[in-house]
Amino acid sequence: MAAQLDLKALGKRAAIADGTKAERATGYVLGGISPLGQRRPLPTTLDASALEHETIHVSAGRRGLELELDPRDLARLTGAETRAVARL
User: Fold this and answer.
1) pTM, whole model, 2 decimals?
2) Looking at residue 18, what DSSP letter applies?
């Protein structure tokens, strides 16, 4: 089942970040931005459906490199808020 991010579920001011600004803020290159190990912690939201899986894959900080982990560990490590932000 494929789903898409619902920006409206994140709030009126939510928008996709400018690539250059995202690289500067995270220290990673576009296409390899990881939710882990960023220059400074950024607010993270994890779709609630991720918790239905034993493991999920996230970028590991380089294009084409992924890390497999328990979604609960991702939420704990990033301080993520977990809620419904995807639509089918």
Assistant:
1) 0.88
2) P
